[in-house]
Amino acid sequence: MPPGVAFASGHFTAENIITKTTRSGDLVGVFHDEAAWRALPAGTTIYQVEMLPSPDGEGELFVGTTHLNPGRVGDEFYMTRGHFHQRREQGEVYFGLRGSGLLLLQSEQGEARFEQVSQGSVHIIPGNTAHRLINTGSEVLSALAVWPTIAGHDYASLAQGFALRVFLWEGEIQARGVQYG
Ligand code: M6P
Ligand code: ZN
């Protein structure tokens, strides 16, 4: 049997699945409201990534699913750390499996935009584009991703954060630009 993915839960049906958990305490400096972030138990799971085993090397692909919990740090929705690829020219595909949220995309020049993620949505992330998932719904947001094994992750270039943040403000989902300086 080849590996599969259960549409309802987004979980892989395969042997040798590799799982990585990202907890609140891992996301230092990621959320806007530092006091609210400190108030969360450091062991609170924000997201988990399941991956199928892949060979490494030019031309090979990773397949993984991110399961991003619903919740907020202060008024800001839970989100992944987000990254550029170390090999900047390498792209990626995201595919919405369950839940609802946003895919935040940002160019090297700092221009940011969103795509709506929902069950069945397909997102082609071009090269040279940072990407982050944001769960604006009340269920787990699961999205399958396919990316080249050679792509690598560059988190350091986003140490200042993305140019847009997403909050629940007076009962509405609101994106706000961020001023750095
Ligand atoms: C997706 C892919 C992975 C990534 C993961 C979590 O599954 O894009 O490469 O690691 O999401 O995102 P991040 O690394 O930004 O925490
Ligand atoms: Zn990526």
TrEMBL record:
What CDD domains would the database entry show?
Answer: cupin_PGI (cd02218)
Q: Where is the Glucose-6-phosphate isomerase prokaryote domain?
A: 23-169
Pathway linked to the protein: Carbohydrate degradation; glycolysis; D-glyceraldehyde 3-phosphate and glycerone phosphate from D-glucose: step 2/4
Q: Which InterPro entries match?
A: G6P_isomerase_prok (IPR010551), GPI/OXD (IPR051610), RmlC-like_jellyroll (IPR014710), RmlC_Cupin_sf (IPR011051)
Q: What is its EC number?
A: 5.3.1.9
Substrates-to-products reaction catalysed: alpha-D-glucose 6-phosphate = beta-D-fructose 6-phosphate
Q: Which domain of life is it from?
A: Bacteria
What is this protein's record name?
Answer: glucose-6-phosphate isomerase
Q: What species was this sequence derived from?
A: Buttiauxella warmboldiae
